[in-house]
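Sharing a chain and its predicted structure for anyone who wants a worked example. Both blocks are below, sequence first, tokens second.
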Amino acid sequence: MSPNTPPFRADHVGSLLRPAALHAARTARQRGEITEEALKEIEDREIRAAIRKQEQIGLKAVTDGEYRRAMWHFDFLEGLDGVESFVPAQGIQFSGGIAIPRAIRVVGKLGYSGHPMIDHFRFVQANTQVMPKMAIPSPSVLHFRGGRRSIDAKAYPDMAEFYRDLGDAYSKTVRAFADAGCRYLQLDEVNLTYLCDTEQRRMLTERGDDPSKLPAIYADMINRSIAGRPRDMTVAMHLCRGNFRSSWIAQGGYEPVAELLFNSIDVDAYFMEYDSERAGGFEPLRFVPKHKHVVLGIMTSKSGTLETKDDLKRRIDAATKFIPLDNLCLSPQCGFASTEEGNLLSEAEQWAKLERVVEVAGEVWE
């Protein structure tokens, strides 16, 4: 594993808690109190500060913290041709009764005709001395939550055509990121882990989907999305079970999808949630082929409690019973703010966790 090729021994998923000034600016913009240009100036300033902080900590890959997004997935997906967001009768339900009152649907033929997040990447690239990283939702996200009922039957009477067009739209998007200079792209893939949860599988069955067939459908679509990437672009996949205000959606170990996940999907690395019993054990890592890497998410981003170095090292050692140490890296299990509300910890606690990741990775691998 080259020290200059991602994923890095100390890495992170991407999203960061929004600073107070950014929260205030976005609220002011929603109320019409400032212009879009004024908001962008504040976003630019806060992103530059976040990049500097990531570099100072010692991270070799930096992101914009997703500061320009309200949500990790909808903000990207509604930028594709044929997709729109709306307010549903019932939002996405998380543990503890928390819900996100927003959804997306397909209203026409899917396609790519440019995307604002290409410029978001360029801004990070122009303002860092290390590797700029971009994270976007996996294409499966456009299907999983709403299913057939969220896809216009006139546009797509045949679901096979929907999956094909979605893969092609993503392929053009990936090529656009590559042409802009992106060499570290992450697909946030929550739905393969949701398919390990019996309650989520029941929900899919009741609405008419076959949860036993979806993993292969999603794998084919993801492979179609990234097949044309440059050989020097690293594509990672982030897997988690939901992350909103420190709550979650799904539970269950990776075993039901592990062999397909590691051997049928053509990504280079996996950011894997492993911070709680909901994720199961390390046994599924036995399926990881020798040329791929796993970034162990054994540090939680859902609370400010700082893991000890000894505990992190002990869990890394436990993982090596199933995968060689050289195939492993370390990170928090998810972002700190998958939505602009952020998880229930302070910015100081967030940065302390990222510092601990760099510290432990240095002691374990360097």
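Comments welcome. The first helix runs from residue 20 to 30.
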